């Protein structure tokens, strides 16, 4: 027994399983390179733009106060390309470089995650509950070249930055500004 989701004719669970089984049995050809952002999200955006896919949200975030952020596949694609450019150009990162994000789960967390996929940058998520010691360890162990946080968590993050020899850039998510930090919203 299988079912469709949200009333659309989407792949059913059994179809998905059989697809992956066919890959394991070498009956399907795997692409040499695969990038979720460009191969999946951009394809869905194209189908949405051409009217061959209904305009369902690609991303829908609601906080405790009821504020919403909704992005279509086209909007998520466009924003993630801009964010990937910020990481590559303003932050000076290249494919394979590592980024640590110490953020609560705000929309920018997901946006930066997709942007890192798009640019081939390794996204290392960190919760807002990390201590200064945790952040310091992660910076040193990962050799991260960029750290991303918000204005609330920036003081705790800044306290450990002098010991980080690999860090090239610091990116702030939010309205405020801090000396020595780039602001994501302004750069987008």
UniProtKB/TrEMBL annotation:
Molecular-function GO term, any one: fatty-acyl-CoA synthase activity
Gene Ontology CC annotations of this record: mitochondrial matrix
Main EC class the enzyme belongs to: ligase
Presence of keyword Lipid metabolism: yes
One Pfam family cited in the UniProt record for this chain: AMP-binding
Keywords on record: ATP-binding, Fatty acid metabolism, Ligase, Lipid metabolism, Nucleotide-binding
Any one GO BP annotation for this protein: fatty acid biosynthetic process
Reaction(s) this enzyme catalyzes, per UniProt: a medium-chain fatty acid + ATP + CoA = a medium-chain fatty acyl-CoA + AMP + diphosphate
Claim: DNA damage is one of the keywords in the record: no
EC number: 6.2.1.2
Annotated ranges, domain AMP-dependent synthetase/ligase: 52-173
Entry's family note: Belongs to the ATP-dependent AMP-binding enzyme family.
Name used for this protein in its record: medium-chain acyl-CoA ligase
């Amino acid at each position: 027994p299988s079912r469709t989701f949200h009333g659309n004719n989407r792949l059913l669970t059994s179809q998905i399983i059989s697809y992956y089984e066919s890959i394991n049995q070498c009956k399907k050809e795997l692409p040499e390179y695969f990038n979720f952002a460009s191969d999946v999200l951009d394809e869905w955006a194209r189908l949405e733009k051409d009217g061959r896919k209904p305009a369902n949200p690609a991303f829908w975030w609601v906080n405790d106060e009821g504020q919403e952020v909704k992005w279509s596949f086209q909007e998520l694609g466009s924003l993630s390309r801009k964010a990937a450019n910020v990481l590559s150009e303003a932050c000076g990162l290249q494919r394979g470089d590592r980024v640590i994000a110490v953020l609560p789960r705000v929309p920018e967390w997901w946006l930066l995650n997709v942007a890192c996929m798009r640019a081939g940058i390794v996204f290392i998520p960190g919760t807002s509950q990390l201590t200064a010691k945790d952040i310091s360890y992660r910076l040193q162990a990962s050799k991260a070249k960029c750290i991303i946080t918000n204005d609330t968590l920036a003081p705790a993050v800044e306290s450990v930055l002098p010991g980080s020899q690999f860090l090239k850039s610091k990116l702030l998510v939010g309205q405020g500004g801090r000396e020595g930090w780039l602001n994501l919203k302004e750069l987008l």
